[in-house]
């Protein structure tokens, strides 16, 4: 997550907490002054309105933070998937290259087998011919 966005989310949540703390402090002050304070009804209405505003705005603002976080999580999953697709593509390329090398190796091995067989037959034939020549007078 980008640092700026993270700071914005933390700041938004801290602002909501601060608003609630401020309102709670105002309630404490109002209670401390008592109901016999001539400004009690006005202050009470002001606090009720403030809590209503916080109660109506907080879910909307926090829902936006929540949806932004969920969107970022989805973006990360998509990026990971794209990375996996790229890794899969490269792996298939490597496998293709290895298959070509294996095929070339088989051809080389087949050629060596043929050469070994030809050499073996040739040496055997020469050896047999030498023996035949050596034993010609005994035949």
Describe this structure in words.
Helix content is 91%, strand content 0%. The protein is an all-alpha fold and 139 residues long. Helix 1 (3-33) runs antiparallel to helix 2. The longest helix is centred in the middle third of the chain and has 95 residues, at 40-134. It is rod-shaped, with a radius of gyration of 44 Å. The chain starts with a helix and ends in a 5-residue tail after the last helix. The mean pLDDT is 84.
Task: List the SSEs and their pairings.
Blueprint: H1 3-33, H2 40-134
Question: How would you describe this structure in keywords?
Answer:
0% strand, 2 helices, 139 residues
Helical content, roughly? over 70%
The profile of the biggest β sheet is:
none
Structural class label? mainly alpha
**From the alpha-carbon coordinates, what is the Rg to the nearest angstrom?**
44 Å
Q: Kindly, what is the distance between the CA atoms of the first and last residues, rounded to a whole number of angstroms? A: 95 Å
> Can you tell me the overall shape?
rod-shaped
Low-pLDDT segments, ≥5 res: none
